[in-house]
């Protein structure tokens, strides 16, 4: 989908540009530390700058973000360990803690970053209270608080912008299928067409296994993405797939018959049962529905979700 690729490209370019700017800033810090003969801090700054540069190059070469953020976790753990343990050895390391909140909120989704930043901030505050006198405590905590507030505001604005961009392109960036807003638009048009042409309009709801609901966010989204790929392989050229806000997939099948719907469900189940990629793929729940003239968009969507929930 062109809109989905456009959305992913914008997010990727923003991350690459931020990494390059951060690498440039750390390079300047490394040069200044080297001029002042603080070789250890210069080496650390240069190391992080090189890591960010390599990460940006990898993103450009791959053309997409990794589904598993191993690189991000390694980089942020290295920075956190350096700042927490480094403050016990030298006061110069304190300046690095101001970089951490913004970096955490940039690398991870908002809810994950909030938990991680809260844990790090608690450990950092305890370290500052135990290692520094009252005068330095006030300066450090005030400056860190300002940086933390700025990072949270940046993350909130970025998160809202991301949602706004997703709404504009009407595509879910995780599964690369259309979202619920686009389903409402398309379904309204197809309902009008079906009424005018006295044609059959079918829908198929697909609910993910209940066991997936307890997984971590990265693992859950990875499974959603895989399921959407398998689902799209079973569609006809003019069928369309959507992901609802409740994580239920809906396939819209215009000009369809019962045989077409049966073939879709059978092909999907055969495909999933033959795949050993993830556990529980064969436990998805399916519900078939047909539009009738007295239905409206919201009623039809709610009925599909209710029927799927009744299967639990």
TrEMBL record:
Gene3D superfamilies: 3.30.70.270. The chain crosses the membrane at residues 12-34, 40-61, 73-90, 102-129, 141-157. Keywords: Membrane, Transmembrane, Transmembrane helix. Residues 158-309 form the GGDEF domain. InterPro entries: GGDEF_dom, Nucleotide_cyclase, Rev_trsase/Diguanyl_cyclase. This is Diguanylate cyclase, GGDEF domain. It comes from Thalassolituus maritimus.
